[in-house]
Amino acid sequence: MKLLRPWLELARISNLPTAWTNVLAGWLLAGGGQNYAALGWLLLGGSLLYTGGMILNDAADVKFDREHRKERPIPSGRVSAGLVWLVGLGMMFVGAGAFILGAGACPWLVGGLVLAILAYDFYHKPWAGSVFVMGSCRTLLVLSAASAVTGGLDPRADLAVILRAVALGGYIVGVTLIARHESRPTQAGGWQRMVGYLGLGLPVLVTAGILATQQPVVAYFQKPQWTHAVALAAMLPVILCVRKALRLMRTPPPSNIGRAVGLLLAGIVFVDGLAVGLTAPAFTLLFALSFPLLLLWQRKIAAT
Q1: Predicted pLDDT at 304
Q2: N or C end of the chain: smaller count of CB under 10 Å?
Q3: Which CATH number is 5-300 given?
Q4: How high does pLDDT run on average in the chain?
Q5: Where does residue 220 rank: exposed (0-12), middle (13-18), buried (19+ CB within 10 A)?
Q6: How far apart are alpha carbons 166 and 171 in whole angstroms?
Q7: Which residues lie closer than 8 Å to 290 by C-beta, 6 or more apart?
Q8: Helices 159-183 and 226-249 sit at what angle, rounded to 10 degrees?
């Protein structure tokens, strides 16, 4: 375990299950059927792309970490920078292959996902706009998984999938911007707080919009459908998670910001559950049940 722990820290392994729910959400939203072999390739590829991207994030940050975060695995000497580069790039390559060759995902979407991960790893420190690249990583992960089912994405036929994926990306942008504003209010611009709140609320807004376009609001009370009830109910844990995290961020000590970000990252499973509420409501419950397990895992390995 002593030899393995530095790699688990590099991979932010406690957040890995959220990559699985992202993949499952894309698969289910696109109407994934009985091709479980393809789903297995997607889960493997998503795991490798997430883990490889996180490992490369530390490799790219090594100069900063040697000055400010000497406890991280590379500056502390627990792993070598050269090996980290080799393992991270290898995972990215194999993960992309699992998506394209194993599951039949769209090469253009997977290629965009790989480029977005690498762009974030290399430019998140010097460029404030990199938060939008980070959000696009999750968006493209969902869309890449969906493309393995549909063979590609049609902006009209797959509009609901695209909107759900964009909403997830917006949520990730919101997590970063709000955390940045609350931790460094003198350095963060006012636009960050406004865009951050919008991003955190985007999954609920998108779901409300989709429900409203399917039938008039009054019809939900006259002739309720249980899938609609699940979708409506799934909004609540997202709202409560965001509310709890925002209250934590504003409560001393400053270390509460880290706890709040961890809470929001674990809340990704609620966002994915909300996304599939209309198409696979059983998975909404399954994703929600993984939330407390993620919080427990974060006590062992930090999510950020």
Answers
A1: 74
A2: N
A3: 1.10.357.140
A4: 88
A5: middle
A6: 9
A7: 17, 21, 269
A8: 20
